[in-house]
Amino acid sequence: MRHDSTAAMALHEFNGAGEAPPAVLILDDQEIDRLRLRRVCGKAGLQPDYSEAATLEEFRAALDVRPYQVIFLDYHLGMDTGLDALQIAKAHELQGDAILIMVTSVGQHDVIIEAMRSGCSDYIIKEELGPEMLRKAITGAFERRILLAALAGNQQVGDLGTALQSFLTTSAPELQSILTEMMHGVWRIRNSAGSDPEMRKDTLVVTRSCGELARFLDELKAIADGTHPIEGPAGRHGQG
C-alpha cells in the first residue's frame, strides 16, 4: 500500500512545489467531459494550467506549444481514437516527460490493456472518475518514474545489470503473458459483477496493478537495452 506521505510528496511535486503550476492537456471531443475532468482535478487537489483539444488536429497544435506534465487522452474521438493520440504524443519531441493517461468507458478492457502496453502511465474509467482515482493515477506515475530513474542510474553497478538481464530473458516474457491473461480474466469477472460496488472496486485495483506491472517489465527491458528515454543516448528526460 502506498504511504500517504509519499503520495503527498508526489502531489506537491506535481503542483509545482510552489513554482509555476504544471501544464495539463485534456484531449476530449466532448466539452462537458473536459469540464468534468477539470472539476475532478480541482477536488483531487491538483492545480494545473489547463489546455484543451477536441480533435487530433487541435491536439497536434497544442503539443507544439509547450511540454506538458500530464496529458489526458479520451479514447472516443469521432473517427479517431485515443490510441492514435497516444502514438502522436509519444513521438513528439516536447512531450518526452509527459504522463499519459487514457480515459476509457466501462467494458473497454482490450483498449486498457493495449494502452498500458503502448506507453500509457495509467488509465481512468470515465463512468467512475473521482478524486481518489485521479490522485492515484498521478502520484503512481511520479513514483514509478523516480524508481525507473534510480534503476537506470544503477543498473551497471555490481551484479545488478547481470541479474536484470537474466530475469528479463528467463522470467519476464512468461510473466508478461500471465499478466495479460490475468487482466482479461479479472475484467470478465468485473463485467459479471453487475452493480456490486465492492467487487467492481476490487477488480479495478487488480486490473490496474497488473497493467502497471506489465508496463514496468517493458520499461525494465528498455533500460537493460539502453533504449529507455531515461537512460538512452537520445533520451529526453535528462535533457536540460
TrEMBL record:
The modification 4-aspartylphosphate is found at residue 74. Keywords: Phosphoprotein. Residues 23-141 form the Response regulatory domain. It holds the Pfam family Response_reg. CDD domains: REC. InterPro entries: CheY-like_superfamily, Sig_transdc_resp-reg_receiver. This is Response regulator. The lineage of its organism: Bacteria, Pseudomonadati, Pseudomonadota, Alphaproteobacteria, Rhodobacterales.
